Amino acid sequence: xxxxxxxxxxxxxxxxxxxxxxxxxxxRSDVYSLASVLYEMLAGQPPHLGGSAQQIxxxxxxxxxxxxTTLRKAVPPNVAAALVKxxxxxxxxxxxxxxxxxxxxxxxxxxxxxxxxQAGTRPSQDWRSRVALPATGLSIILAGLVIWMSASRPGxxxxxxxxxxxxxxxxxxxxxxxxxxxxxxxxRPDSTLGPLLLKHRDALDATPIPxxxxxxNTAFSPDGRRIAFMVSSNIMTVDVSGxxxxxxxxxxxxxxxxxxGPDGYIYFDRYGVGPLMRVPEGGGQPxxxxxxxxxxxxxxxxWPDLLPGGRGAIMVVNRTGPGRQGAKSDSIAVLxxxxxxxxxxxxxxxxxxxxxxxxLYLTADGNLMAVxxxxxxxxxxxxxxxxxxxVSNISISETGTLWYSRAESSGGRQELIWRAGDGAPMTFxxxxxxxxxxxxxxxxxxxxxxxxWDRPGSDLWVTRVGTxxxxxxxFNRFFTYLSWHPDNRRIVAVSVDGTVDTGAVDASSRLGKxxxxxxxxxxxxxxxTDPGCSSPSSRAARATPTSSAFDLASTVRRxxxxxxxxxxxxxxCRPTGTGSCTxxxxxxxxVIRSWSGHxxxxxxxxxxxxxxxxxxxxxxxxxxxxxxxxxxTA
Amino acid sequence: MMAIDVKPGPSxxxxxxxxxxxxxxxxxxxxxxxxxxxxxxxxxxxxxxRRRFFVVENLSAALKQMMER
Lengths: 634, 69
What we know:
heterodimer; A: mainly beta; 6-stranded antiparallel sheet; 5-stranded antiparallel sheet; 39 strands; elongated; disordered N terminus; B: two-stranded antiparallel ribbon; 1 helix; 43% strand
């Protein structure tokens, strides 16, 4: 009765998406099947005939349906037009519901452009006088069919999870279109980012999108026909069907998060700088749409995700500053676009609304969670549940298909080496190896402190140059930066969550013992009087991870950068002879127009904050380098 | 790696910058007190990240059922 690989029953009434085994079957598929039955009732044969099930299926997929009036001329034009629309190949071109189909059958004025054109070429007919099956009768039959098909329709499509493998190198990220039919893929074929790749979901191969080399962030337009992407610091758009990318604006600093709203705006964040922004999709004046609560330590609003209707947006509130997204202090927040006010909901580092009443979000530990969310009232309406662990990237379509990735990393290994001024390498302390996050030489050059990654964290180690054995000083911490105090005893270490520890290496035992690394303060912009500044007397060593470039007390008398009090308030500071710190606000823009290279005389003219500055322990020189500025010294 | 002589003080001034040697990555680095030697890290084993991609079909429908329980 059945053939292997086919569903039970005849293929005559299958929709094209059923025939191609699409996972997503909607009510429009039922409309197609319903129309096929009606077509057979009127014409005496189904829309497609064939000698085998395979032939029929191929015709369903590829061949147009013959006009019903070619088989039975008495069919009213509105009925013929309704059948044409109901038997369209693309679900989106059909009636959305069986009710709409029935209404068209009962509406003698209903027509489609194709049928109207065809009718215009024919002699006028008084078809009403020859209608064998009145429209009202059709509606009644259709209603019966709807009931029958509803009763026989299978339940909701099953949930399935599977892994996708890729030929060659796996992508970095995959972004799925709103209807789930397209994927835009970001890859790194070699040492640089390649062009974006576009893949139809059911196609075997992906094709490069010209003009997108180096793109690092993408967002589909609401209709899925265009893609917004970032190249360098520019927002661009390109049609998925091809064409030349169109520039929208230069964000100056780049944007890790993009979304294309239903209101014709592209929403974006700015790397390391401030609130969410938006710009008209065709270009124009950008505007800030959120306000940082600097008193609560907010430094950035990132990862916008527009909610349906454009009333609100989901975003991430970052409190640890540039380069430190994904910290446990990050939170998921909802922004009311009518008022510009936002409200933190819960801890998390990335979130997407699924279009069906759920927020999917990632925690700092990589757990994928879901929580019911009312997009109309902008409120959480239930408790979160866990879905998956070790997730690093998510994208979900409005049809409820989730793509996510898991990253399995081996961090590599490094060793420390000396280099003379002429560059000749000399191996140093081969026992100091592993995944080194940071290291620093004490002011007297006798000891090296370093941060070594050892899951689950990055801990502090110390060794004496030439003779020492490495000593581990902390356990299960997550330091990202350290610096020696000029007394060669104390160390300042900064954690990924923004806390700063200080402690002393016990000189009596030469190395190893730590008097303690008490967690002294959490340095967030706006909370501290003089965050990140240290005095010439080195009594007030403070640091913050929020600064793009900072140095600690060991760089005595040479403070290159002080941290910010919020993304719009990056500024240099200058220690004074009294041990206090004075500040000078430079600009209230995303970029820094100058920076202080010497504590008495501001110098140089970098237009962006350099990363970190290093000072020679003798205080003779300081060097700093940024990606945009020439080497600067002071 | 570049070097430059500086003269700290009220009339701060700098000399000509000169290249010392090439760096594979600029950070971190540290220098001895005499300024003659630099401590750098050298990569002996490159980091590798293997990404695996997964798809969940009809997740929203499943979530709805799970939330209603």
